[in-house]
Structures are given as structure tokens and as C-alpha cells.
Specification:
The protein is an alpha+beta fold and 188 residues long. The protein has an 8-stranded mixed sheet, with helices on both faces.
Length: 188
């Protein structure tokens, strides 16, 4: 059974998503979707309200994912953090994050969200491995992941088409023991 979680820092809030958020989630982030978000996530540019809302409902209800919303000081949904593809038997999952509004990027919010979600994955979900991928043309995100303890473990060479050229997809992960060592180091 999923539990409601929330964390606060500097007026920002990370909290579990619920069905009542679906309409605002669409209106505040997908109408229209920021072009940098499209590029960095590899998603399509336009989604219908129906697509977004139905996917949001499925995400909230799914047993193999946790969807957290990032709420700005003004109460707007400015991003999301997702642990998905959870395999509780193998104790592994995938991770992704999006800060939807360019005005909120570059403030350290993403770093806080990544570290908070990472800690939730190991502390609450008892995962052994958390993995993600990041495109080579998003070095800012890769730096955030490295700072949070993720390690590069492979590259899918020229796996992404970025408008007019191909780019690498970088595979990263953090293991339970690495996370524990990182936490011990930061607590001292």
C-alpha cells in the first residue's frame, strides 16, 4: 500500500501525487510543454489533455511506480519525480525527474529532488539498485546525478536523434551499498 509522503525546502514541496492533481498537472505543465523538457526527456511535443490525465491516473494507481509532484512556493506544480518500473523481487527500479518551468531550473531544486527521491527509494522501498538514463546533451542533469552518487555504467552510442544529429544516451545507477556509504559520508 502506497503512503503519502512529503518533504519541504526553501518554500518548495515534494509530495505524493493524487488523482485530484491531474487537471492542474496538465494545465500547468503540458499546455504547452516546455521545449527544453521535450528535448531532455525525449518526449513528443504535444499531448492531449485526455492522454495526460489518463496517464496521470494510471501512474497514481500503479503498484510499480511512485509519482511525486514538485510544488513551487506559489503553489504551482513545477516538476515531478518518478520511481517507476519497480521490481520488488529484484529490488530495482528506474528513476526520472522533470522540472517543467525554465524559471525554476538552475536553483538547486533538481538536486534536492533527486537526492530526496533517491533516499526514499532506498529507505522506504528497500531497493538495491536505482537506475536512470540521461542524454549526453544534458550535462547539467548528468552532474546532478553524479553529485547524488549515481555512477556511469554504460553508453548507448548515438541512440537519440536530437533534431539534426544523433547523441548518446548515458546509463547510470546507484547501488544500495554506494548510497549507504554516501549517506555515512554526508552525515559526518
Amino acid at each position: 500500500m502506497k503512503t503519502d509522503k512529503s518533504w519541504e525546502k526553501d518554500g518548495f514541496l515534494i509530495r505524493s501525487a493524487n488523482k485530484d492533481d491531474a487537471e492542474e498537472y496538465y494545465a500547468q505543465n503540458y499546455d504547452p510543454l516546455d521545449k527544453e523538457v521535450v528535448r531532455f526527456t525525449g518526449s513528443k511535443e504535444v499531448f492531449t489533455k485526455e492522454e495526460v490525465v489518463s496517464f496521470f491516473y494510471r501512474s497514481v494507481e500503479a503498484d510499480d511506480r511512485y509519482l511525486f509532484l514538485v510544488i513551487g512556493p506559489d503553489g504551482r506544480i513545477v516538476g515531478e519525480s518518478v520511481i517507476n518500473e519497480i521490481d520488488f523481487h529484484r529490488r530495482c527500479a528506474n528513476f526520472r525527474i522533470a522540472i517543467y518551468h525554465s524559471t525554476e531550473r538552475g536553483k538547486g531544486i533538481g538536486t534536492w529532488v533527486v537526492e530526496t527521491t533517491r533516499d526514499f527509494a532506498f529507505e522506504e522501498l528497500n531497493l538495491h539498485r536505482l537506475e536512470l538514463d540521461v542524454y549526453a546533451f544534458n550535462p547539467r542533469a548528468e552532474r546532478v546525478y553524479l553529485k547524488a552518487g549515481f555512477k556511469r555504467e554504460g553508453v548507448l552510442r548515438e541512440a537519440i536523434f536530437d533534431g539534426d544529429k544523433f547523441a548518446d544516451d548515458i546509463l547510470m545507477s546507484i547501488l544500495e551499498d554506494e548510497w549507504r556509504a554516501l549517506k555515512r559520508h554526508t552525515e559526518h
